[in-house]
Amino acid sequence: MNVKNCASCHTLFFNPIRSQILCPQCKEDEEINLGKVHTFLNNHQDASLLDVVMETGISESQIRRYIEEGRIDTTSFTGLELNCQICGLPIKTGNRCSRCSDELKKEFQIAYLNLSRKDSNNKL
Ligand SMILES: [Zn+2]
Ligand SMILES: [Zn+2]
Question: Can you tell which superkingdom this protein's organism belongs to (predicted)?
């Protein structure tokens, strides 16, 4: 059955393309919402996320989802504050600050070294 619960309003809708998560009505709303965000950002490039929420009436989680899906251009959203998922530091793009990315890389290298060391111990 190609019927699905809408991720936003939870009504059942016919879903021939299974990747679709929103019902036609919510999808239309989403396009309108995105239009509002884009229009607002064009005129207020230094707006914060809160400004966008206040001005467009769209919830913060919704806007964050648009950003994650790449539907809002974060380079034209200079007042946007994303936070590092690890330390919570404000960042401009992605989901980790450069320090935490470096830390992760280091940890990965150490883990890798330990692994290869164990390997060579086993061989001895
Ligand atoms: Zn819906
Ligand atoms: Zn961080």
Answer: Bacteria
